[in-house]
Every structure is written in structure tokens, then in C-alpha cells.
Amino acid sequence: xxxxxxxxxxxxxxxxxxxxxxxxxxxxxxxxxxxxxAVLLRPEADSRQLTGFYERSFPSEEPYLTFRYQFVxxxxxxxxxxLMGGLALLPLALISAVTETxxxxxxxxxxxxxxxxxxxxxxxxxxxxxxxxxxLRYSPALGAQLFRGVVSMKESSTYQAILAEGxAEGxAEGxxxxxxxxxxxLGGDAFGQPNAATADAIERITDLAHLExxxxxxxxxxxxxxxxxxPGRAPRSPRRRSSGTTE
Length: 247
Hints:
Number of helices: 11
Strand content: 5-15%
Structural class: mainly alpha
Order of helices and strands: EHEEEEHHHHHHHHHH
Largest sheet: 3 strands, parallel
Number of strands: 5
Distance between the termini: 77 Å
Shape: flat
């Protein structure tokens, strides 16, 4: 069996151990030899910890476990074999060893491959995957520009969902940024400009509802520390005295 892990994040240090665990689980389930390989999709996923070997041992003893795995750095692969191989490899050509100026030619060659009978059946899914792959290396604006002339993408429900999600995320990020800006202004008027630690604490807040709650508490808070230290605590109402009774 071939076990593939596509990696775009920053967990390369823990990756060899995870490959070993999943390799063992697959072997146990299917009772077959399993070859594990990590496909690194961008340089940020690389690490010196990736050597092709994962070993475990006790102090002053020979390793009791030696696990071998493979890994491929896609950005170092030439685009030719990816463009001429199986159709499923086409999206990887966009993040292979190519420059930005070469991307239009890569997309043109992809269109040629996907215009055939077999290609048309998979075109929608592969174009959507290609768009996602491109986003690992380049800006959304460049991706939209390069894919503007690809008719299949306009018809792709996956592509349209990706665009809709991106627009929604962009609107949400804009609201969060505006709430932070207003919080800096109102808090600055009430408590003075925040120091570096306070500004950093505000910047780490990504939840819009949390920011809105802080904005509502600016008038009742005594300081930045009071405001940020107890974001969920509502201000106490003064206790009333009724005539003729004591509390």
C-alpha cells in the first residue's frame, strides 16, 4: 500500500512520528506492507527534521525502532512530468519549480490536457484543486487573474464556494479590524494610549463578539487592565436602599 500525506503547515517536526503511527495502523488494518511518503506542498512545510528516518531508542542503547519514509518537495520538481503524467498530478504543476511568469503557460497546458474526453470528466474537480494549490504560493488576486479565462472554473460549484468563503472571511476580517481601531480610539481617550503589551493583547483578539463586548465596557472600566483583564464580567449595579430599611 502507498500512504501519502500532503503537508502544507508547520508540523514537520512531528511529521515523522505521525507517519510511523499511521503506517502501523494501515498495516494492522490491511495486513499489507505500507510505504509512507510525505508530499510537502510549500517551503514553509519543510524542516531539517525530515531525514527519511525515524528512530526510537533508550539511552545508551541501539535503536529499537527504525522507520523509513519518503518525502517530496513539490517546489523542487520540474513541471514537465507533472503535466504529462496522470491527470491528478496537474494541480501540483502550478506549485512546482516554476516562476510566476511561467504560470499562464502552465495553465494553458493544463487546459489542453483537460479538454479531452477523460479530462472533461474530471475538469471541475481538478481546476478547483489547482486554484487551491495556487493559493499556497501566490496571492488571491493573482489566482483570480490567472483563472479568469478558464470557463470550467466559472461553472465549478467548488470554485464558487471557495470564492464565497473568501469573500465572507474578508468581510469578517474587515469588521474585526474596524472594531480594534475603534477600541484603540475609545480606550485611548479613556485610559491613554495602550502600552506595547496591551496593544499586543488587543491584536491577538480575533473574535468579533469579544471585541464588541469590550467596546461596550469602555465607559465602565477603570483602565486598560480592568477592561482586558475581565472581558466577560458585567459592571455591578449600585445597591439601592429602600426607605425605612437597612442593608
